[in-house]
Amino acid sequence: MVEFKLKFDAEDIANAVNDKMDEVVDFIFTNSQQIIVEKGIVDEGSLLKSGNINRNFLDKEIVYTMPYADSIEFGRNPGSVPSVVAINGWVHRKLGIKDDIISRRIAWAIAQDIKKNGTQPRPYLQPAIEAARMKFK
Fold first, then answer.
1. 41 FRET partner, CA 20 to 30 A, in 1, 23, 74, 92?
2. Are residues 97 and 81 in the same domain?
């Protein structure tokens, strides 16, 4: 009789899987951060700073907590007016408009255009997930 016996320790397997999950989620998170910078989706860095990995054993989650994170990733449908105050801050910083009256008018016009036309998606997380799929096949 020839016999071959193979036995694995369930805890060792679970730890190995958890370690690989950490490697994959770190790869995705790092790439998503790089994509945000490469695509110029950086104003004050709030989106970058809001990114986080929630880690539990065999349970990982990447979250971007800024309220507009999903509007950047998936775009924004026409219909509602975005925050004119937030856009006004952007007009001051990015366009260098110092005059408050002019910047508010520009911000209002941008908000109305977004209400009418929405915004195009600028995905940063999905491409990072796709890159991980290719790397960790």
1. 23
2. yes
- pLDDT single digits (tens) 53-78: 999 999 999 999 998 899 999 999 99
User: Which stretches of the chain drop beneath a pLDDT of 70?
Assistant: none
Give me the DSSP letters along 49-80.
Answer: HHEEEEEETTEEEEEE-STTHHHHHH-B-TTS
What is the per-residue pLDDT for 137? 86
Instruction: Return the C-alpha torsion angle 43, 125, 70, 63, nearest 10.
Output: -90
Structural domains of the chain, count? 2
**Tokens standing for 15?**
């730890």
**Which structural domain, as residue segments, surrounds residue 67?**
16-75+120-137
CB 56 within 8 A of CB 25: no
Are residues 104 and 110 in contact, defined by beta-carbon separation less than 8 angstroms? no
Position 42 scores a pLDDT of: 86
Q: 125 lies in a domain?
A: yes
75, 120 Cβ separation under 8 angstroms: yes
Is position 70 within any domain? yes
pLDDT of residue 120: 96
